[in-house]
Amino acid sequence: MAKPTPLQAFNGVPKGTDKTNNAGSDTKSAGEKMTGAQALVRALEDLGVKDVFGIPGGAILPVYDAIKADTKFRFVLARHEQAAGHAAEGYAVATGRCGVCIVTSGPAATNLVTALADANMDSIPMVAITGQVGVNAIGTDAFQEADTVGITYPVTKHSYLVTDAKDVPRVVAEAYYIATTGRPGPVLIDLTKTAQTGEMEYTWPQKLLLPGYTPTTKAHGRMLENAAKLITQSFRPVLYVGGGAMRSHASAQVKALADLMNAPVVTTLNARGIIPDSDPKCLGMLGMHGTIAATGAVQRCDLLIAVGARFDDRVTGKLASFAPTARVIHIDIDPAEIGKNRAVDVPIVGDVATVLDDLIPVLRDEQVKSGTHDLAPWWKALNDLRTNYPTTYDRPEDQPTDGTLSPQWVVSQLSAAADPDTIWVSGVGQHQMWASQLVDFEKPNSWISSGGSGTMGYGLPAALGAEVGSQRDFDGKKPVWLIDGDGSFQMTSEELAASTLDGVPIKIAILNNSVYGMVRQWQTLFYDKHYSATILHDGEPDADDTPGESGFVNIPDFVKLAEAYGCLGLRATTKEEALAAIKKANETNDRTVLIDFRVWQDAMVWPMVPAGASNDTVAYRKGVHPLDNSQQADDAKLSAEGF
Length: 643
Prior knowledge:
alpha/beta; six-stranded parallel sheet
């Protein structure tokens, strides 16, 4: 059994509390009398929460009863608890604030676990509130009872069990603070029915009692000096920027550091848009499906500055051969990440934006003192890679052979026609990689996707949350486009109901290849084209001599599904239809629009590094390995003959 964290050890009643005194002190409180459920709603209001997602149920009914017409936050009714969690995630990324969701006990709480794990992996601030049976029923296998704290403890930043009404305001305040400070993440509050119905005296603000929780935000001066010296000594530096920089709102600082160093910037999936794609220093995403220039830069650099990144396996490939000649500076607010996967020469613990604000003047002074190196040869090598191996889909082998659309072409057209302020959301699969490669990201927080967990079904509810955030913060003037796959979309398609009934119009592009695309790609490359359990029949060309009206098998028919939910449904099988559908979607803002793009099922995501292989084996396309040497070539062939 896992030992309690310092937070768990101190999440009970404050020291000195007299059990006979609900105020927690020797002086009687002058607070307003109310139930714990009412206190929860009031505490969320006092924290400034404006939007909440969720689904009611028996064990959380007192809280829902306390949500009235004059409650200060908007409540959005989801259709599945997992979706409520993903919507809170999408809202948090789009707005930079904490997402909040409220569901009931038992199966509702376990449904929510996927979203909690997703938020935990991607460092998304979220407070999730679950109902729980009464205190006396805990441990009796009561109806819809589950050990929610025990289940969620490994996939949250912290979990609370609240058994007394008087603890509700303090716990809500602590949970919100924990979720939004340090390395952001999800915090769960499991609220017993006893605590919801019990009476207490409400006061605000609450005193935070969090001994041991003191996130370091400011870097040690000596570490900054050491980093500056390494930077000025480098001939081939690279800034490797992860989602932590995005969570820290450090876009301006990353841009300033890159300009000061004249260094290339490569990003993880979650950091797309941290600097504009149009910036010549931006080489794009690195790793398994990253650009050749970005992956090559890291593999050949002599200094790697990791900024809010965690050396994920999809980035590093075979860890032992990742950036083999590089010294490493690692900046992260979570000390547990530093040195976890890669030995570090200069560890810097602190908030990314704060650290870079402090590092830049130190580096500027060091450059004056020690001078700088000419990076022209380094940039020539990188620009050669960028020129010779661009992100493209115009090779003969990329062209559909069955008359369907090229999915890469569809994504490019979506990007070209979009409002510059568009918030892009994706599900998980091939479409996610094409979106990250081909959408032009010019602004931070314009890309929302499930990175660490790779959660299929994430897209639609996250887009729902992003649109609620756009309505709240930007008067709806930042349109939300969801690029999804037919497989990923079907996992949470019920949220079209929430989109329609709650007035949350989004634009949906389904790249419908009638298969689980990424799994099929692996089956093609590594499993001798044995397409086991990956054919979906939701847009497959009809092989019969007498095809149906559309010439396709449609189970489901996404256009009819959209219409059934009150949305505008469109289908595109040709380029002319696709361009017309995109134009129609961009002109429609009063309801959700879904476009069923029929795309080629044998399209491949390139570049690609086989799982567990060295990044030096990255294939620009099948059989073409721009960074290869003889040893890495042998490694790659272990994964797929002829890859």
